[in-house]
Hints:
- By secondary structure, the chain is mostly helical.
- It has helices spanning about 5-30, 40-45, 50-60, 65-95, 100-105, 115-135, 175-180, 225-255, 260-285, 315-320, 345-350, 350-360, 370-385, and strands spanning about 170-175, 200.
- Strands 1-2 form a two-stranded antiparallel sheet.
- Helix 4 (about 65-95) packs antiparallel against helix 8 (about 225-255).
- The radius of gyration is 22 Å and the shape is globular.
Amino acid sequence: MNTRDIASRLSAEQEHNDGNVQSHWNRVVGRRSFLKGVGLAGAAVLPGGGLLASQAAAGTASKLTEGDVAILRFLAAVELIESDLWQQYNELGGVNGGNSSYMAALSNLDGDMPQYITDNTEDEISHAAFLNEYLQSKGAQPVDLDVFRTLPGSKATGAQQIGRLTNLQALDVDTSYYTRYRSSQSPDFGATFPQAVTINNQPAIPLNDKDTPPNTEQPNPPTTAHAKRMQAIANTAGFHFGYIEQGGSSLYSVMALKASSLETLLIAVSIGGVETNHFSLWHDKAGNAVAQPLAGVVDPVTKLKFPDLNAKPFPAEEFQTNLILPEPTQFISKNLPACSVVRPTLDENGGAVATINSFVADQLFKGQSEQFFSKVMGLARAADAAKRQV
Length: 390
Ligand SMILES: [Fe+2]
Ligand SMILES: [Fe+2]
């Protein structure tokens, strides 16, 4: 075979493999109906072998630094975790969700909530699938957390009875992001922020049909005990969505600073931008749980209360529900003018280990094994240790 034949065969192979990747990509993210009935394990199947072989043959595969691999592997793990929790929300409350009362309670926050939940879920699955395939295309190990899908999920109508990575049934949601993004003080300069709502040991998804019958009417505001319970669960979810996505916004900013290759940097800023986009949306919707006409819901079981944050005694600058765009804040130096930015962006506040510690405090991993913690913490420490090399 002469050089020209080899070149044309390699190019045909590349085309074939690109076609495979493209059709896989279409299967993963191209169809809005794809999520219904498809488990995450199926979504994360990686066909990268052919791509690897042709890239190696063509000499186009460039090696990632150890640090870039660590960054991308940790981000892949976080995206698998995000996908798992969003999938639970999507099964029950997404646009094809199976629990009409939960969907109605979420829709009291905004009529488009089920659609947004489904789209956010699809985004997370695309992030996880992309990162793992990118790692493989560079000859690096993808991340697989399937062995840890052991936690029981919701027993309510609509939930698949499959093992989960994350637990949404007894969350301690840190809602201080709400006041942090309304403040001109930065956590990276030591500032701390009050909770918007104190949410401890509260479910964010319906637990079972006895606790919240799936066909309960959900007027706005709710009137019956079952409707109030379901509304409190949906409101908790609304605040949890914002908590998760603000974490992603900070994490990707922190990781971007450690990237060595331009592609790793591109991945970090491009996915990170979408995490921030998600955060902004959820920040807005959570505010509707604590504004009229919905404000004032009290969970009859846990006594959790969602007050009206637009009324006294809440100071407007920290709590007003339509102040969702970030307030300019301290950035890099207190001597520089305030700047409207993602915050925090210091390792200790928003890096990989900080993210896992925050998820632990959120009770997101309640019931997970020691092996799971050591796996994700190992990935987190390696990512935080990555140093930019140029
Ligand atoms: Fe994501
Ligand atoms: Fe996210």
